[in-house]
Structures are given as C-alpha cells and as structure tokens.
Amino acid sequence: MKRILSTAVVSLALISSAAAAPFQWSAGSGGNDHWYEFVILGSGDPSLSATQAEAIAESSSFMGLGGYLATITSAAEQTFLNSNWTGAGSVTGQFLDYSYFLIGATDRDTEGSFEWMGGPEDGNPLGYTNWKPGEPNNAGGEDYVVAWWEDSASGTWNDVPGITGVRAYLVEYSSAPVPVPLPAALPLLVGGLGLLGFAAHRRRRTTTA
Length: 209
Ligand SMILES: [Ca+2]
Ligand SMILES: [Ca+2]
Prior knowledge:
The chain is of the alpha+beta class. It has helices at residues 8-13, 50-59, 75-84, 188-208, and strands at residues 23-24, 35-40, 61-62, 65-69, 101-106, 115-116, 144-147, 158-160, 168-174. It has four helices and nine strands, in the order H-E-E-H-E-E-H-E-E-E-E-E-H. One calcium ion is lined by residues 107, 111, 138, 142-143, 159.
C-alpha cells in the first residue's frame, strides 16, 4: 500500500536524536546476532508519524546491516530487550511519549490482522505477541504498535493511532533487507519522493519473494 511520506522526514532524519548506542543480542548468549537501537527524539524535535519513523528506520544501517522497526518474535527476544530498555524518564501517561517505543507491527492493511511491516519478517503475521491486557483495542482506529506501554519491566504492547506523536522507536539491524538510503544531498522534495518510490518497490519485491 502506498504511503504518503512527508518531506519533513528527510530533514528530521538529519537531526541528531538521543539514541542509545546500538547493542547486540549475540548468538553466544542465545540470541540472533542482530543489533538494536532505542531511538528517542530530542525534546525540541517535532514528533513523527509512524510511517515517518518507519522510513527513517529503513533508511538506517549499522555495521553494514539494514535497519527496520524492530520485529519482536519471541519471548526470549522481548526479555532481552526489556533488560536493555532505555526509555527517557518516567512513563507519564502521555499517549505517545519518550518511554513507549514504536515497533514494526501493524494492522493497517487488514484491521485486526497484525503483521510485521519490515525486516526479514516483512508481511508475516505475528506469532509471538506481548499485548497488555485489553489490547489491541483499536480505540478510535489504531494500526501501529508501541512496546513498553505502561510497563517497562515486561514491555507490554499497545496498538496506537500512529498519525503523529511518535517520540521514540526501536530499530533492529540484521543482514536483510538491504537498507534504503536517504538521499541526503538531494533537494528535500526530490529526496522524499525518491525514497517513497524505492521503499514501495522494495516492499512489493519482498512480499512476492
Ligand atoms: Ca487496528
Ligand atoms: Ca490500543
């Protein structure tokens, strides 16, 4: 499905966010060798929409590995991430704040059918889930997912609107897919449209693979 990508996403990506250093879930400790990064926007930065955060995550790379909004696919992965959770400040109850991290789950294509929107699991339905009791409730129309919702210890999930207000998101880096570059040197409008086209093309290709 085609996504409208604001040109603001390009300039926002160039603003340094208060990101904790990426950390690895090493195979030696029973992990998948993927890297993760808790990204928290600066307090003066405008919040993002979910699709803007998605585009920024998929344009990022680390150690030569492509990024995407994290796909948490097992209790072990959730537990590992809980132990590394670095939300900013307390959970305030603000709808989307610096403690709730957007992850890569969505039901934007089919209401009630959540799937992963990027990474190696792109298009796959969720297997493991960690919903807070009563969620997902699609309250007022909610098609994106944050983790660590009102519970930083167990990292419970909530479906949220995602139109705007994203102030924190979790990026996962692994060998696939190839990162989508943000064309930093191009005019913002051209860059944004180019990224949109590239991302749409890649999504279709991945889906049919
Ligand atoms: Ca929904
Ligand atoms: Ca909800």
